[in-house]
Amino acid sequence: MKLALKVLEKELNLFELHFKDAVKSRVALLDRIMEYIVKRKGKQLRPMFVLLSAKLGGEVNNTSYRAASLVELLHTATLVHDDVVDEANQRRGFFSINALWKNKIAVLVGDYLLSKGLLLSLNNKDFKVLQILSTAVKEMSEGELLQIEKSRNLNLKEDVYYEIIKGKTASLLASSCAAGASSTFNDYDMIEKMRLFGEKTGMAFQIKDDLFDYGNSNIGKPTGNDIKEKKLTLPIIYTLNNCNKETRKKIIYIIKNKNKEKEKVNYVIEQVKIHKGIEYATEKMNLFRDEALSILYSFPESETRNALEELVRYTTDREF
């Protein structure tokens, strides 16, 4: 992400100030928690997509910075709530909010972040940005709930999987690009083009996340976490659709009843590898990446476009 960081050096420094101001509170406890959140922030991939999408259409402005702050507030709120739901004690190598302050406070903090984001847009009359990102929140919730519903019977088709990840992951990245573009482009078609670009990138991003369950250079070995959580991801879906009935029955039984047993989970992972589920998922991931790049290449070449291309390639080439 070297080029993206170079192109956005000034803008990211200004974004930091905007974001810190956006999370301020009159409650001392909230301020302490907000300070903790700001200090342990991640790569800020989504705000970078917002700012680069804006830069593609013109000069980054206050609306662009508020859009980036809103995206980061919404994303952080979902992570805080996810940690409560998943009973996770760590996030990005740090203690999660619920681990330090318990579930009730964590849920309220997530609600606070969500409301601050919405008010940030409302108070500044950024109605277009607000509409774009409110739609993302709705789609993220629908995607997560659809995944829960479908995981109960473990009868998931590939098109349903795409519908799930389009909602739970790709929608926020799509809205990030659309919100950024809406702050500098006046043409609706251009904004929609950037939204679709973000959606394709987000699809590739989630498939890459799903592939991490089968091992990477950092982990060194498969984790099997999705199997333990009864999540049907693309490598398993492909395997279930391409193995014999006996193997399919055994895999489904393990995911339903033996998903905590390491030996059984390893059997499922081995079957995914045998039936080339990882290769298939990688092929689909690269297809979404290439579709995103094809949209991006319709814009004139520039340092900003090159930086966006770098971010797209990072989503599929990253090792964690």
Q: Main traits of this protein?
A:
320 residues; mainly alpha; Farnesyl Diphosphate Synthase; 15 helices; 2 strands
Give a brief rundown of this model.
The chain is mainly alpha-helical. The chain has one domain: Farnesyl Diphosphate Synthase (Orthogonal Bundle), CATH 1.10.600.10. It is 76% helix and 1% strand.
Notes on the protein architecture:
- This protein is mainly α and 320 residues long.
- The protein has a single domain, classed as Farnesyl Diphosphate Synthase, CATH 1.10.600.
- 76% of the residues lie in helices and 1% in strands.
- Strands 1-2 form a two-stranded antiparallel sheet.
- Strand 1 and strand 2 form a beta hairpin.
- About 2% of the residues have low confidence.
Write the topology of this structure.
Layout: H1 2-7, H2 9-22, H3 28-39, H4 45-57, H5 62-85, E1 90-91, E2 94-95, H6 97-123, H7 127-151, H8 158-182, H9 188-211, H10 225-228, H11 234-242, H12 245-257, H13 262-274, H14 277-296, H15 303-317
Antiparallel strand pairs: 1-2
Helix pairs in contact: 2-5, 4-5, 4-8, 4-15, 5-6, 5-7, 5-8, 7-8, 8-9, 9-14, 9-15, 11-13, 11-14, 12-13, 14-15
